[in-house]
Amino acid sequence: MIKKVPMRTCIACRECKPKKELVRIVKTDSGFRLDKSGKLNGRGSYICNDAKCLNLLVSKKLLNKVYKTNVHDSDYLAIKEEFDAE
After folding, report:
1. β-pair partners for 13
2. Is the CA virtual torsion 13, 19, 20, 26 positive or negative?
3. pTM of this prediction?
4. Parallel, antiparallel, or unpaired for β 43-48 and 16-18?
5. Whole-angstrom Cα distance, residue 55 to residue 46?
6. How far is CA 25 from CA 1, 2, 29, in A?
7. How many CB atoms are closer than 10 A to CB 15?
8. Four-CA torsion 4, 35, 30, 16, nearest 10 degrees
9. With helix as H, strand as E and coil as C, how does 5-72 read?
10. C-alpha distances in Å from residue 27, one per residue of 1, 2, 5, 84
């Protein structure tokens, strides 16, 4: 039996890729964070594990559109720092 590979869409480049190739961003009670394990509670969205997609996410403030809320610049900065620390 062939195992089905879960696919997700990057919110920046809109490309559909296997879930393991993407990085999950989670909206928690305390703000937004990167979810390296993929198991944090909260609503998640995915971006490519690529600096271009991260820069697009920050420059176009895509989390505002995806979550239909006003995301603070400090949250974008925290996500960028966590991404760079990987």
Report:
1. none
2. positive
3. 0.88
4. unpaired
5. 14
6. 32, 29, 13
7. 13
8. -50
9. CCEEEECCCCCEEEHHHEEEEEEECCEEEEECCCCCCCEEEEEECCHHHHHHHHHCCHHHHHHCCCCC
10. 35, 33, 24, 19
- pLDDT of 38 reads 81
Q: Kindly report, residue by residue over 42-71, the tens digit of the pLDDT.
A: 899 999 999 999 999 999 999 999 999 999
Measure CA 4 to chain center.
Answer: 22
Which residues fall within 8 angstroms of residue 85, CB to CB, at 6 or more apart?
none
Nearest to 13 by CA among 71, 55, 44, 75: 55
Query: Which helix (H) or strand (E) segment is 74 a member of?
Result: helix 73-85
How big is the chain, counted in residues? 86
